[in-house]
Amino acid sequence: MANIQAVVFDLYGTLIYLANETKSYARLFANLGLQTPEEVRQAKRIALTEDFEDVARLVRRIKSNAQVDFASYQQEVEKERASASLYPETRAVLDKLKEQEIRLGLISNLASPYKSPFFNLGLNEYFDEVLFSCDVGLIKPDSRIYQKMIERLGINPAQTLMTGDKVHADVDGPRSIGINAVHLDRTNNSSKSISSLEGVFQYLNFARKPI
Question: What is the CATH number of domain 6-17+85-203?
Answer without folding.
Answer: 3.40.50.1000
